[in-house]
Amino acid sequence: MTQSVRDLEGTFARSWVLLSRNWIIVVPGLVLGVVSAAAQYAMDALLTSAFVISGNGSEDALYAASVATWIAGTVVAMGFALVQLAYLTGMAGACWQRGSTTLRDGWSALAHRVLPMLLTWLLLELLAFCAAVLAPVTFDVTLIILVVFLIYAIASVIIGERPPISAVAESCGLAVGNLGPTIGVVALVLAIAFVGALLGSLIARVSPMAGALVAGVLQQTIVAYASLVVVGEYLKLTNRPTAP
Q1: Which of 15, 126, 191, 233 is most buried, by CB atoms within 10 Å?
Q2: Which candidate, 44, 31, 45, 32, places its Cα nearest to that of 78?
Q3: pTM to 2 decimal places
Q4: Helix, strand, or coil here: 22?
Q5: Quick one: 106 exposed, middle or buried, by C-beta within 10 A (0-12, 13-18, 19+)?
Q6: Cα(179)–Cα(66) distance, rounded to whole angstroms?
């Protein structure tokens, strides 16, 4: 199916309606964000103490501790991001297909598609690394292409239930067949994210604590809305039924 500008406008409008009726879709991101930050803080403190004590406070021990905490923090953050993506995509799919969602929809998506999600995530990370390596000589064109052509990959894995390579191929095919609307999705989502970050920054100047809180809620709301937009486009482009 080929999308028009009017179809794209309809997706953005419908996504906002679905978000306004299903604020629970923001909850997983907020909870996982807090838990992830706490887990990283606890792990950093534990690893730093262990390396410093075992190394008698030497510079080598401090360096090893910093490397270990960075690696552990990255792994933890990626793990929580993976869970959040599965939850949001599953709940967004339920919103579009039924008009409502619950946390159980996110859990079902995670439980049934965790291995394909993990493999797809690793594949996307590999492609992202290759794109980043080529970015300096392509003026970041490879990074832009990566975002545009792989935007539907996670929806393909969770909702389309495709294996990783097939999901990437389907995402590329959908983006090629609907390049204009897909670029529009990416551009508008990035613009909304920029506005949200700017608002959080402005509030932080008045009150750091309130700014951090508002920025966190705004960020997760934007991520949830973006997930609804991407999933909505995926369902339309693959001719899957949606709720009236």
Answers
A1: 233
A2: 32
A3: 0.87
A4: coil
A5: buried
A6: 43
The dihedral built from the CA positions of residue 95, 97, 100 and 102, taken in this order, carries a sign that is: negative
The two structure tokens encoding residue 87: 């939850």
Residue with tokens 């803080």: 41
Helices (H), 99-163: 103-138, 141-149, 153-158
What is the rounded average pLDDT of the residues 106-120? 93
Q: What is the pLDDT of residues 118-173, one digit of tens each?
A: 999 899 989 999 999 998 998 888 989 999 999 999 999 999 999 999 999 999 99
Select from 128, 119, 134, 118 the least CA-distant residue to 151: 128
CA distance 96 to 101: 9
- If we measure between CA atoms, which residue out of 83, 25, 73 comes closest to residue 223? 25
Q: Which residues contact residue 38 at a Cβ distance below 8 angstroms, ignoring those fewer than 6 apart?
A: none
